[in-house]
Design a protein that fits this description.
The protein is 39% helix and 22% strand. By secondary structure, it is α+β, with helices and mostly antiparallel strands. It folds into two domains: 15-169 and 229-312, Bira Bifunctional Protein, Domain 2 (BirA Bifunctional Protein, domain 2, 2-Layer Sandwich), CATH 3.30.930.10; 321-417, Rossmann fold, CATH 3.40.50.800. Strands 1-5-6-11-10-9-7-8 form an eight-stranded mixed sheet. Strand 15 and strand 16 (398-402) form a beta hairpin. Helix 1 packs antiparallel against helix 5 (138-154) and helix 5 (138-154) runs parallel beside helix 9 (230-245). The longest helix is centred in the N-terminal third of the chain and has 20 residues, at 15-34. The chain starts with 14 loop residues before the first helix and ends with a helix. The structure holds adenosine-5'-triphosphate (ATP) and magnesium ion (MG).
Length: 419
């Protein structure tokens, strides 16, 4: 019947889902604001080079997943596969580094990756993310994780926990990369084809391979914490101290790495329910700002995958307390109905009214389908007596009310329902 279908990996969010999305979005933004974060909105299109430079050319995201194209003037552009690079770019371009010592930003929007579509994996997906610039202290790491913890606690996410690890400072990271390269080289033949290439280009990424055999090998790989410098050890120790004091459910996962090049020191992922995929992930990226041409400013952030988060949250479908469906029988009633609808809307009450002058039965059916919490019925009899009927759509109880009082009474009923 319909000629056009959505493109593979894309999905629509239909009205029955968007209400839940909006409420989750509000919770995330409210919590971020409590921690002093402000929203930044960055474009979906950037120079491809920005992502190559920040995420790393040898990562899957750049090598296999990025949507890139030339525009009419031949510029090399890309749809953003993640938010951090753009936020750092905007942070530097707007000279925010000179405005405050600490800058805290949150963003929300669509990301694009040519992933293999499956549950929890789309080609367009939403991320809510936060970035903190200017804080090197390990307690910032703790606070960022605590904020993410507060978000999911507020959303009653079932059985969630954090996996954390450290990648060390750039020197530690280089040293550990060497150790892993050597250790994995001895096991080269057991690695998947991709990982054999990674052995040359980015050995740490072998630790993130999803292949079962590579995973099995990785379990026995050397732990970075045995080779960390004193400063990195102290940093990680203090992050753990913060998390313990804040009562955050976490475990240290020695071989945790991330799929993006820019991370240093603390990295973390959050899992929930029985989902194998991380719901959120992030970490410190102390060199990215300077790598992108800015001053030496440490930073830390995370991104939540919204589709994965939403799939774990139980839907509490409830009739909207603030929603009235107005049924009018006959033309005279309709004219009064318009007045009623207008003043209810002015009072901030969602109101629907059908102008088609259909019978009571079919309008009642429609009112039921609409999900309205209340129904106002205005028929000929009511009109004669200068009354209206207010029907409670949950209990089915109805009450006749003098027309002049409907607004007061309507408001009273509706307010009584407010949580
Ligand atoms: P994965 O290992 O699952 O591919 P990733 O390491 O590529 O994840 P990040 O770049 O850290 O993911 O992105 C942060 C979060 O964004 C992920 O934890 C996930 O919730 C979400 N995410 C990433 N890719 C997708 C996708 N293709 N579809 C839906 N959500 C995604
Ligand atoms: Mg990925």
């Amino acid at each position: 019947m319909n000629r056009y279908k959505k493109v593979r990996g894309m999905h629509d969010l239909l009205p029955y889902e968007t209400e839940k999305w909006q409420s989750v979005e509000r919770t995330l933004m409210d919590v971020a604001r409590l921690y002093g974060y402000k929203e930044i909105r960055v474009p979906v299109i950037e120079e491809r080079a920005l992502f190559e430079r920040s995420i790393g050319s040898s990562t899957d995201i750049i090598a296999k997943e990025i949507y890139s194209f030339k525009d009419r003037k031949g510029r090399d552009l890309a749809l953003r596969p993640e938010g951090t690079a753009s936020v750092v770019r905007a942070f530097l371009e707007s000279e925010m580094p000179y405005a405050r010592k600490i800058t805290k930003l949150y963003y929300y929007g669509q990301m694009f990756r040519y992933d293999r579509p499956q549950k929890g994996r789309y080609r367009q997906f939403y991320q809510f993310g936060t970035e903190l610039f200017g804080g090197a202290d390990p307690f910032f790491d703790g606070e960022v994780i605590e904020m993410l913890n507060a978000m999911v606690k507020n959303l009653n996410l079932p059985g969630y926990f954090f996996s954390i690890n450290t990648l060390g400072c750039p020197q530690c990271k280089i040293r550990y990369t060497g150790i892993i390269r050597e250790w994995m080289s001895g096991r080269r033949n057991k690695l998947c084809n991709d990982c054999q290439i990674r052995l040359e280009t980015a050995p740490l990424r072998i630790l993130d391979c999803k292949n079962t055999e590579c995973r099995e090998i990785t379990r026995y790989a050397p732990d970075i914490r045995e080779t960390l410098c004193e400063e990195c050890k102290r940093h990680f120790g203090q992050v753990e101290e913060y998390l313990r004091k804040a009562d955050i459910p976490y475990r240290v996962q020695p071989n945790l790495v991330r799929g993006l090049d820019y991370y240093t020191r603390t990295i973390f992922e959050m899992f929930a329910g029985d989902d194998e995929n991380a719901v959120a992930a992030g970490g410190r990226y102390d060199s990215l700002v300077s790598d992108l041409g800015g001053p030496n400013i440490p930073a830390i952030g995370f991104a939540i995958g919204m589709e994965r988060l939403l799939s774990l949250i139980k839907d509490k479908t409830k009739k909207t307390f603030n929603f009235v469906y107005c049924i009018c029988i006959g033309r005279q009633a309709k004219i009064k109905g318009i007045e009623i609808a207008r003043s209810l809307r002015d009072a901030g009450i969602i109101t629907e009214i059908d102008y088609e002058e259909r019978g009571l039965k079919s309008q009642m059916k429609e009112a039921n389908r609409s999900g309205a919490r209340w129904c106002i019925i205005l028929g000929e009899q009511e009109l004669e007596k200068n009354e209206i009927i207010i029907r409670d759509m949950v209990t089915g109880k109805q009450e006749n009310v003098a027309y002049g009082n409907y607004l007061e009474i309507g408001k009273e009923l509706i307010n009584a329902e407010k949580p």
